[in-house]
Amino acid sequence: MSDAQQTVEATRASLAELAGKYLTFRLSKEEYGLEILKVREIIGLMDITQVPRTPPYVRGVINLRGKIIPVVELRVKFGMDSTKDTELTCIIVVDVPRDGMVVQMGILVDTVSEVLDIVADEIEPAPSLGAEVDTSFILGIAKRKGEVRILLNIEQVLSTTELVKVAQIAESVPAPAEAA
Q1: CATH number of the domain residue 30 falls in
Q2: pLDDT over 70 percentage in the chain
Q3: DSSP letter, residue 171
Q4: Separation of alpha carbons 86 and 144, rounded Å
Q5: Buried-most residue among 77, 131, 152, 172 (CB within 10 A)?
Q6: How far is the CA of 147 from the CAs of 32, 83, 175, in angstroms?
Q7: Is the pLDDT of residue 91 over 80?
Q8: Is 154 a member of any domain?
Q9: Is residue 156 part of a domain?
């Protein structure tokens, strides 16, 4: 087998690994997908407490059933303009591995769309946009019924040093006692 054939086969195998169920959501006019196994829950917008001296894309923290969870405004993290929250704005709580543990973090999105079962034939590799553009947070591009969805590697999206610090701050804040 030639090197080119080996490369094609390796690409097919890695895309086959990406096939599965994805929770899709919108930011502006773009559609994104997260591996459903990384999603803990979807909650409506609730009070978010701002944390001083955090990056602009960190909206703050929420108290979810006694657990403090940092919330990232994904629009701002991706360099889009922030918009007013609507009745469709929601928080997707995801599980992110950190230092051998699983940390819960929230991502603020415009709206959740649906859960899709995406097969390998519908997935293309992440595009190469040049050395100066980091696309490591893109698992692949799903094409289905004429629409394109960007499949996200949520661990890469939420892996920056600042987010790790925010998650550590959130873990160190004692949750208020639940009302009996």
Answers
A1: 2.40.50.180
A2: 77
A3: H
A4: 27
A5: 152
A6: 11, 24, 42
A7: yes
A8: yes
A9: yes
